[in-house]
Design goal:
83% helix; 201 residues; globular; mainly alpha
Amino acid sequence: MEVLSVLIPLAVVQLAAVMSPGPTFFLISQTAARHGRAEGMRTVLGATLAALLWGGAAMLGLEALFQKAAWVLRWMQFAGGAYLIWIGYRLWRKPVSAETNMNSRGGFVSGFLTSVGNPKVILFFGSILAAVFDPALPGWVKLAAMGVIAFNELAWYSTVATLFSLERVRKQYRSAERVLDRVFGALMIGFGLKLAWGARD
């Protein structure tokens, strides 16, 4: 019962955070609409790995390190913002045909870098885990928490990738590909600028 009192709040709050639209959501939806479900799912796996990395780092106490060495967090925010701006620029300036195949690792790498490049995620995990986790809890409970994180990421983003890879959605995407790419590009640039601007504090 004590374990459920830890895992259920984590599952609910983290799922709500995952479902909030952000750069990862827009990257996965755009990738699935342009390249299909397989590439969308590779992007999902990359994003999930990044979430697990940050979740594990939070359990190891790296949030405290960032609090003591704030410049590390600022530089990571700036780098993550710059990467999002680069993705947005590519979408804005060089739209690629929907029939063009990505490199087999392209979606995975983009998903991973987009998520891991946002160090605010570790602050989220750190605050939630600090609130619900007792350091005396056994290691298997922490592993169960990582399983919850992975399940939430995979369940939500797999749904996103599946819906946006439906043929009718892809057909609509192709009919307005250049406009939609520029919309996605502008959104990614906006996220990147916001993240990079926050690094100045």
